[in-house]
């Protein structure tokens, strides 16, 4: 298991990296390498050139402002998870990152790389969608912002053009009156999820005004389902609403029936936890 | 056949500098073993799962099978060979984690051991006095086919004691 030969570039500026990427059709960006290098080692990918972005300046930030958390392309999962301010502003980010691989992988893998990699078995792409965040990308043609809803095209396929580098991801802050929760079943903590479920619930007093649920490993793209109607209807079944839009598949880790079962168990639990979270936060806001 | 381009790479490993010439696709794990002659770093799966190849990169555990040697130029790398403490003797003395593995029978075939030693060395810096659960979590990313993990967990707890004993000047 050795990678096929490739040319290697370690640019010192973003401009240099973008020009190189635009000039070489078979080039790929190397960030943390925790998804790309296994693919190279197994010869499932054979790029003609790797453009290593690890020496680029100013991309390692985890910046927290009132509107949310901005994560630079070289911020490692461990650094994002280590930011208490980021967790305070958007607790779902840390809740999900705790399930991303083992600490040693999180020390190298980047949160932005995980989004671009667009694995439906990965936690972060789903979380970005559920939170309605976005990614800023740069190319020789300029910069643009891609909303999460337009980011995922297919299995392991994002809508970045070949010559674009993602420079920053934006995770909106949790609004007052909103709550989040995350649960995942994996063979061991740190393994890829058999099923992972996150919920984002908005409340107004006792009433739930909006409820959405995101799923890991039960479809081939990161998927989020609006279950507001099912939650507001006393006879509603949010898991059934969600399952109508999911496509649990069988693989060596779990049968489709087991995944379906996990969705039915986890979705109501996570919705209840997110609703409690929203109400407790509303309580805090009133009695500081 | 075209010859593959070689890169001059200066690796900083265990306090020494190694000037090596490698193709871009040379994994750090292979560079350490074949080009630097440091065969203590073991290679199991080469896709990040087993942890045998774990080394410290600027003190932080990372998988050397998922890094390219050309990408490691700015880093100080510590392999299992670099854990031994200098005590004036030629072979040095075993680090607290190494000593604990010896005391607690934390290894059998030893294949997985280098990765456990590096991972736990860094883990104890972050969590100097782990509970048994924290010890298990510390090693959860490393696989061992022999020991059944019980004695490795004991080794983590024992290593934490040895660190404290040495700090108090008792050992
Ligand atoms: C053993 C193991 C277990 C894992 N378990 C999990 C898990 O449970 N959950 C999970 O979510 N992930 C898991 N991962 C994957 C890990 O989270 C990766 O770090 C992450 O998916 C990719 O980030 P990276 O920085 O390593 O990207 P790389 O591997 O460097 O790149 C991945 C892809 O994204 C592209 N890319 C990366 N960054 C950019 C950028 N800034 N601009 C443009 N393109 C870019 C690359 O070209 C490549 O195609 C696991 C990995 C391993 C090895
Ligand atoms: S050889 Fe690197 S993790 Fe298995
Ligand atoms: S001691 Fe043999 S694999 Fe761990």
UniProtKB/TrEMBL annotation, chain A:
Coiled-coil spans in chain: none
Taken from the record, one Pfam family name reads CO_deh_flav_C
Record key words, sorted: FAD, Flavoprotein, Oxidoreductase
Q: Does the keyword Transmembrane apply?
A: no
Annotated FAD-binding PCMH-type domain ranges read: 1-176
Against InterPro entries, the record matches this protein to: CO_DH_flav_C, CO_DH_flav_C_dom_sf, Diverse_Substr_Oxidored, FAD-bd_PCMH, FAD-bd_PCMH-like_sf, FAD-bd_PCMH_sub1, FAD-bd_PCMH_sub2, Mopterin_DH_FAD-bd
Q: What is the name of this protein?
A: FAD binding domain-containing protein
Q: Which organism is it from?
A: Nocardioides cavernae
Automatic annotation (TrEMBL), chain B:
Q: Cross-referenced Pfam families, in alphabetical order? A: Fer2 (PF00111), Fer2_2 (PF01799)
Q: Which ranges carry the 2Fe-2S ferredoxin-type domain? A: 7-83
Tell me the domain of life: Bacteria
Q: Which UniProt keywords apply?
A: 2Fe-2S, Iron, Iron-sulfur, Metal-binding, Oxidoreductase
Quote the PROSITE patterns the UniProt record gives: 2FE2S_FER_1 (PS00197), 2FE2S_FER_2 (PS51085)
Iron found in the keyword field: yes
| Name this polypeptide is given | (2Fe-2S)-binding protein
Provenance organism: Nocardioides cavernae
Q: What is the lineage of its organism?
A: Bacteria, Bacillati, Actinomycetota, Actinomycetes, Propionibacteriales
